[in-house]
Structure formats: structure tokens, C-alpha cells
Amino acid sequence: MATYTYGVGDQGRTVFQMAPGRVWLSRLCGMPCGYDNADGGPPRAQGLAILTTNLGRFEADQLSLVVGDFRDGEVLLKWQAAAGAIEYESRWSFCAETGVWSRKDRLFNRGAIPLTIYRCQARFVFPPTRYELYVQDSRWCNENQGQWLALPTGELKLGCEWGRSTQGGTPYLGLREVGGDSGIAFHVLPQGNWTIRASTHAVMSGLPSLVVELGLADEDLRLALASGATLDLPELLIQELPHGQPHLAAPQLHRYVQRHLFAAAKPEAPVVYNTWFDQFEVLDWSRLRQQLAAAREVGCEVFVIDAGWYGPDGSSWWLQAGDWREKTNAAFYGQMREFADEVRAAGLGFGLWMEPERFGPQAPIRHAHPEWFMAADGPMARIDLEKPAAYAYLRDEISRLVETYDLAWMKVDFNFSLGYDTSGAELLHYYEAWYRLIDEVRQAYPRTFFEGCASGGMRSDLHTLSHFDGHFLTDTVNPMDVLRIGEGALLRLPPGRLTKWAVLRSLGRHIPRYTLSVAESPIAVATPGGALWEPAQTVDVDFAAAVCLPGMFGV
């Protein structure tokens, strides 16, 4: 038996052990692994992967190791199954500076017939003892809300809701032994729907082992892999939780992702003004000119028009999504380019809101090309990006807006779920195309800042963030909410990649301060109580601004 060690000391050390046809972990980021320091226990609690296909279920000894290559900071493992028809590859990279592991798995169909995949996930096994799990609930205006849970028996399954990668939960799991002083964190970089499953497995009468399996969702998976084809699975990041505390691991994660995921990102963001919280979708040219003057005075560098500018023949910004023609009966009355020129003449860049993936029932393109669209969320439809003509149309529409209005900033929103994936790929192929499209647009327009948004933070994962210049934290702009939601976000995402708004409205001298008359009282300033102005509350301007400064600042 051979032993391969990465890292130094017990804290953070990872140890692989290899015997003929087998490889296992005896320690991962400082946490003991396996059963009795070996790859023992029932098959459900062995090995480093689980695979279920039309050719059978493969785990433990049913995946036969054919390559075990251990080098400085790199590990390559390959298994075969089904008499060589299936090859499973796992590449691990260790960053000694931060202690973060990256694991990238790939599946090959080496057989002569198509392979149908029902489940294909990475597996990690931990020895019998009592564990606590750190998970994050994540809902609109309540993203990233974490808690520790005990798992004495049974199973805990985390996942997202139909393409909204951080709605329902975040792709993050913390793990520590009850009463112990070490821990470990798993991060999934989703491509499509994802799942994290933690389950207990009894061995005779003792305490159960804990098995963590994670990666591409398997609830509706029936992915067809043609002969000779390859499937790339979501990347995983694994790191130590010093003293079992998630917040102590965050700085090292930030350093890692800034270097490895965001190396090509824009080094800084302009200070942005956005029109949304003035009158929401109601856009009045004369009022916008006043806002432009104020934005310039306080030092904003980009002026962004939010929803409400498009759909020439209607009034609902929600139902007209997908019709990216200017309104002719409201807003700029078809003359938004003239206002964009005014913005640039004032010394600011011009920006625009768009929601490219959602197509409402009033979007003409849905009627012109119904074959391009698939049912999604209620009356909404999503575009089938696997169709070349549909892909080209959407890419060209985004490009047309950037070029027509010479955009310095585009806010790319995502306000619906993508719906059930009838192809059986759990939206894997949709996201492959979507990320490729966004990358093409960003490469074509390097001077434009592309900000991601998803009803705030409903798609704020590391993989999505690597394809944008920044991402909106949450739709609630109340400073206390921003602090609460940002605290959980920083366990997964670096602060300098998140946009936050200080939203302020003067109330004049209408609220008396204690011991003072109304006339003697200072001007009061209000901020929304959440994602709307009702209810509002008074706020200290310095506090509201300070909350948003650790990040990409906007007003």
C-alpha cells in the first residue's frame, strides 16, 4: 500500500492511500476519512464516486482503479467499469498557499452503444461519529441564511430550484465533528441543477458513517452520452474549516477564487447610479435629468436605466420581457439614445437593464419563432440555446443593445425559474450554452461592465460569478438586511465581486427629533424597509453608505 500526503501538520493535511485496483482518502483537509482508517464499511460508504447508468450501478470495488498518478499539487485518478465501456476520471489540484482543493471529474463513454446516466457524483466518506452540518437557506431577500444542523441518522439533501442556483439553498456544505476542533467545507460550482447529499450508514451496532455525495442533480437525470462522448461534471472546491468555523475559512477561499476563477476579471468597478428605486419602472425624462445631475455631483461614474424602458406597445415591464425595443408611448418615447448622449456629455457612462433569458407572452419573437422556446415559469418561456438560430438571435440582441446605446454597463437580470428540463440533463446543456454566450459577449465588448442579477441573489454562485464582472447581492436594500445577507454570502463569495446599493430619499424637515421642533430638526433621510419603499425607515446616511462600501458601490 502506498501513501501520498499533501499539506503539513494535522490541520489541513490530506492523505491518499492506494492499493492494487483501489484508492481512498484517510484524511481530507484535516478531517479523518474512511472507516477505521481504511476503505471499509458497506459499499455505500466506500470509494470516491457513485455512478448509476443503464449498464448498472458502480461504486466501491465496482469502479476499478487503472491510473493513480500523484505529483506535487496534482492528483489524477482513473477508474473503469462495465468491462471498460465506462471510464471515470478525477483530477485534483491542491493550492498550498490557501489549502484549497479543486476536484474536476469527467466521464467517458468508451463503449459502442449510448450510455444513459442517472446519477454521477463525487463521494466522500467520514468515519463513525457524531457530526454537525452547516447549510444555508436562501430565498428572495433572505439569501445565504446559515445554520448548523445535527444529523444523527437518515439523510439531508440540498439543492436548487430549476436553474436558480441559490434559490432554496446554496451549493455549500460545512461539516464538523460534534465537540471537535476541525471541519471541512464543500463548494459546488454548479452547471445546471446541483445537489449535495449527506447520509448516514450504519455498520453493525456502532455509530453510523457519514457519506457526502455532491455534484450534478440526479432527481430527473437521464442524460444520454453517445459512444465516444465525454461528460464534464461540476467542479468542486474543498477546504479546511479552521476550528470548525466557516468564517475562518472565507479569507483563504477569497484568495483562491480571485486568483483561479477571476484572474481575468475587471480590476475595479465604477460607482453606479441605478434608477430603479426612484419610481421603479416609471421613467420620466425631466426627472431623470435631475437624477443625472445629482449622480454626477456625488461622484457616480455610470448612470443605469433599469426596467421600464422597453416594449413599444404595452405598459407591463414584466410581461414584455423579451421585446427589447424602446417604448414609444412612455419613458423616452423612442429617443433613449438622445438621453444616453446627455449622460455621456455629463461625463458618465450609460447603462441599461436587460433580462435576456426570460420571454413574456407579449414578446413578438415567441410568436415569430415558437420552435425556439420552451415552457418555463407560468406564462414565461425560456429560449432553447441548443438551437443555433435561437442562440445567435439572443447573442445578437444583447450585442445590438450594447452597440446601439454604447453601453458602459449592462445589468443582466434573471427573474424566473427555467422550469423542468425535459431533455433529462438537469439544465446542464442549457448552462453550457448560456455561459458560452455570455463569455462571447464579454469578449466582444471588453469595455462594458456586465453585472449579474437574479431577483437579487437567486443565482449568486461561484461559477456564474466567474462569467460576469460582478453580481448583485440581494433585492432588499435595507442596510440591516444587506449586512445580514452579506455575512452569509462572504462564506462563498469574495466581497469585491458583489454590488450593493445605498438607497436614500430625503424626507425634509418633517420628522421632529426629540426635544426639537420640526423646524429645528435636521433633514431626515429614509431607506426602504426591504425591496420596496413600503415600509420605509429613517437611516443615517453614513451608516447606509458604509454598509455598501465593502463591495461594488452603487446608489
Outline the structure in words.
By secondary structure, this protein is an alpha+beta fold. It is 19% helix and 34% strand. It has ten helices and 35 strands. Strands 7, 8, 9, 10, 12, 13, 15, 16, 20 and 21 form a ten-stranded antiparallel β-sheet that branches. A hairpin with a 2-residue loop joins strand 2 and strand 3. Helix 6 packs parallel to helix 7 (428-444) and helix 9 packs parallel to helix 10 (541-548). It starts with a strand and ends with a strand. The model has no long low-confidence stretch (mean pLDDT 95).
Short account of what is shown:
By secondary structure, this protein is an alpha+beta fold. A hairpin with a 5-residue loop joins strand 26 (373-375) and strand 27. The mean pLDDT is 95.
Layout: helices, strands, pairs:
Blueprint: E1 2-6, E2 14-19, E3 22-28, E4 31-32, E5 49-53, E6 56-58, E7 64-71, E8 74-81, E9 86-95, E10 100-109, E11 115-126, E12 131-139, E13 142-150, E14 155-159, E15 172-177, E16 183-189, E17 194-201, E18 209-216, E19 223-225, E20 230-232, E21 235-240, H1 246-260, E22 272-274, H2 276-279, H3 285-298, E23 302-305, H4 336-345, E24 349-354, E25 358-359, H5 364-368, E26 373-375, E27 381-383, H6 388-404, E28 409-412, H7 428-444, E29 449-452, H8 462-465, E30 470-472, H9 479-489, E31 498-501, E32 505-508, E33 524-528, E34 536-538, H10 541-548, E35 552-554
Parallel strand pairs: 22-23, 23-24, 24-28, 28-29, 29-30, 30-31, 31-35
Antiparallel strand pairs: 1-2, 2-3, 3-4, 5-6, 5-11, 7-8, 8-9, 9-10, 10-20, 10-21, 11-18, 11-19, 12-13, 12-15, 14-17, 15-16, 16-21, 17-18, 25-27, 26-27, 32-33, 33-34
Helix pairs in contact: 6-7, 9-10
